[in-house]
Amino acid sequence: MKAAVLSGKETIQIEDRPVPEIQAGEVLVEVKACGICGTDIHAVFSGDFYPLGTVFGHECAGIVAAVGPDAAGVQIGDRVVVAPAPPCGVCTSCRTGRDNLCANHLEGDIGSTPDRPGACAELIRISQPDRMIYALPDSMSFEQGALVEPLSVAFHSVRQSRIKPGDAAVVLGAGPIGLGVVQFLRISGAGRIIVLEISEERAAMARRFGADDTINPMAIGAGVTDKIRSLTQAGGAAVVYECTGVPQVFRDAVQYARGGGQVMAIGVIEKDALVDTFTLLTREVSVRGSMCYTAAEFQIVLDFIDRGRIDTDAMISDVIALSDLADPVFLERIRSADTVKLIVKP
User: Fold this and answer.
1) Pairwise CA distance, residues 15 & 50, whole Å
2) Of 217, 176, 202, nearest to 312 (Cα)?
3) Mean of the pLDDT values across residues 157-172?
4) By C-alpha distance, which of 344, 346, 341 is closest to 320?
5) Residues with Cβ within 8 Å of residue 109, at least 6 apart in sequence
6) Pick the CATH number of 2-147+312-345 from 3.90.1180.10, 3.90.180.10, 2.40.50.140, 3.40.640.10
7) How far apart are CA 175 and CA 226, in angstroms?
8) Under CATH, which number does the domain 154-289 receive?
9) Residue 50 φ/ψ region, left for φ over 0, alpha for ψ in the -120 to 50 degree band, beta for the rest
10) 61-82: per-residue pLDDT in tens?
11) What is the pTM for the complete model shown?
């Protein structure tokens, strides 16, 4: 089978690999669509976030191609969505309904190490189908299925923030997660939604999805905080959702919150980020992390998409072939600030 392998900094090779062998309780899925995640992009450009030799990709949907003995509830031909990091079900977090914080969730994940290949391949082995496989309705495309995972991250963050109807919100970054946050905020009844985004194409999409205002921070510069406080008419937002993972953006986030407001940290920041502790203290702003999603939330988001409550098609910038990943043009596409989500079809 063909698979995309991270072979160096900004270097992806398409290799011929053996078809994965499945054991008892496992299934083999023929990948029909796989989204390129921000973490995958970082790995490609850094060359060291994933170990070299890793078949990356974890946002995927496909068809069950083979079923091992004792793999109950799954049949060959089933259309499925894959949740990439299975909770163990036995640790304290899992037993208390917070399986997104599972202490062992990386033990069976896909696409992060050479010995746990990901979904930028024609076939993928799923070791725990009872915790990783969700039925994909016939009404949904495989491309939509590949968006369930990132949109679940967005849904969890909005749910964790406990934003109230009418509350003003600021969303930092209009990538896939930020655009998902905007859509779930609108569904939740949030008040004014303000999005900070440097790409006009992404900003336009945010407005399409329900943002009331978009601000290009590069154009306004030091005036961003005053602009936000003026728009909210409350001295800032009730909740600020940091979706970029950029340290300086995270530092600025506390400035955009009203007194007693909240910052949700969603974007993955690899290095330590400075925090404006003076503003944090004097305005009593709280900062809260948002980690992935629960199994229940994954199913909820799948149902949201199936009912047409979330616009997924507009988020897909392009659909490319697996072989295109080795083309230098691909690197330019994912480097572009206008690209939202690329879907790979092996």
Assistant:
1) 17
2) 176
3) 96
4) 344
5) 58, 84, 85, 86, 116
6) 3.90.180.10
7) 24
8) 3.40.50.720
9) beta
10) 999 999 999 888 899 999 999 9
11) 0.95
